[in-house]
Amino acid sequence: MTDLPPGLSALADRYDVLLCDVWGVVHNGRESFPAACAAMARFRETRGPVVLITNSPRPRDEVAAQLDALSVPRSAWTEIATSGDATRALLAERAPGPVWKLGPDRDEPLYAGLGLAAADLDQAAFICCTGPFDDENDEPEDYRARFQGAVARGLPFVCANPDIVVQRGDKLIYCAGALAQLYESLGGEVLTAGKPFPAIYHLATALAETALGRPLDMGRVLCVGDGLPTDIRGANAQGLDVLFVAAGIHALEAVGAQGLNMPAIGDLLRQEGLTARWAMADLVW
Question: What secondary structure does DSSP assign to 43-77, as a single string?
Answer without folding.
Answer: HHHHT--EEEEE--SS-HHHHHHHHHHTT--GGG-
